[in-house]
Design a protein that fits this description.
244 residues; mainly beta; nine-stranded mixed sheet; five-stranded antiparallel sheet; 11% helix
Amino acid sequence: MKWVRILCGLLVFVLMLCQIAAPVFAYNESSGKVIKFSSKSHVQDRIKVANLPDANVTLLAIKEDKWFKYFQLTVGKRNKEFVHWMNVTDHDFQPKLYSIDVTNTGQEEIIVVLTTDRDKGVYINEAHVLERTLVDKTDVVKEIYIENPRIIAAQKVNMKRTKRGVVLVVDGKSTFIPNNKLDSKEELPQLSMEHFVKFTIEDNTLKAILLVEEKPNHYYGNIVITYEYANGIMKAEKVELRLG
């Protein structure tokens, strides 16, 4: 029996080691990248990356190579883990925290804006809206789904060629771009909205801005998506083109 207990103890120890050593993979929807995380998630390794003292909210993460990973959001005395969030470590692109009522419900939400990609000609934000409620004198946070801005743009933006140029149709509204403003001589130029996605908050309203470009690097303007809270999610209320 003694040997059985020893063997069982060794087996449990080996299983614990395997669990500690196992890597974690996360797919990030906004950047389309699969990121491999190391398995360490010790609280003492986390550093503060953003803070809202007046709202009693702190965002912490572990810094590994060029990424902040294994995020923890502290709201009052409550901690919540977000192990699949990630943000580049560049000093100019740190995570951003807001405490604003973007749902128009009279209660401020916590908004986290992350930069998930920053490379040559690429800038990608990812936003998270967290509902904050008080249950038994304890803060409870619940994430509110945000419609993907790139999917919205793909559904709402169309293009057609005329003899004099290109007509961009954005959410039913047409904008004409003459031939002398087009770089491409193709029958129908290829437009891209994949390389720049930025989330902003204007007048307590969540917005996403996507750059409209013709390859290579010729910009027409921005697709601006204005969100509203409806049926429990952040939905696209308006999609418009701003030329520039």
